[in-house]
Amino acid sequence: MPQKILIVTGDAAESLEVLYPYQRLLEEGYEVDIAAPERKTLRFVVHDFEPGFDTYTEKPGYTWPADLSFSEVDPGAYIALVIPGGRAPEYLRNNAELRKIVGAFFSADRPVAQICHGPLITAATGHLSGRAVTAYPALEPDMQSAGATFQDTEAVTDGPLVSSRAWPDHAAWMRQFLKVLRSTPSGNLSSPSGTPSSPSGD
């Protein structure tokens, strides 16, 4: 059975920040589930920059089905958690079921990858205190208020937590996250003979 990784997201998540880790982790041989407040077709968005705008713009993105609702998630069935950004974390951080899920991963010291506005969720659960993180740069005050040390760089690893600023940093983010996964006994995919394998050829 493939090892399972959970992505938690919702409407108005950034398309690339959901679908890139989803497909990248599938490529590595993991099974990936997407959980949301309810089982439905999620509507993602595209955040980009245009001349004359002081901040990013938002346009309709892809749609994608959620595999299960937060209330159906058994955190113990997953070896790692991914928290994409976009506008979704702004309201998801208030979801009691999601807060329990996130807390379970941190309590078990299992790998967590967060990007862009995703750290709003981990900040709301109180699990960033004393950690080094990055996030979308406008979130620096939020990260500091959560007790974290903010670093404006493409990816930051602090123990099992890997954070990144936004989708332009995807390569560095997943490179570091996969390194954390492979160093975790439960996340090191093995061949039938028990010899560690790397489907990507690393």
From TrEMBL:
Domain DJ-1/PfpI intervals: 4-179
Signal sequence extent: none
SUPFAM superfamilies: Class I glutamine amidotransferase-like (SSF52317)
Pfam family, one: DJ-1_PfpI
Database matches in InterPro entries: C56_PfpI-like, Class_I_gatase-like, DJ-1/PfpI
Family: Belongs to the peptidase C56 family.
PANTHER family xref list: DJ-1 PROTEIN (PTHR42733), DJ-1_THIJ_PFPI FAMILY PROTEIN (PTHR42733:SF2)
Protein's name according to its UniProt entry: DJ-1/PfpI family protein
Organism encoding this protein: Streptomyces parvus
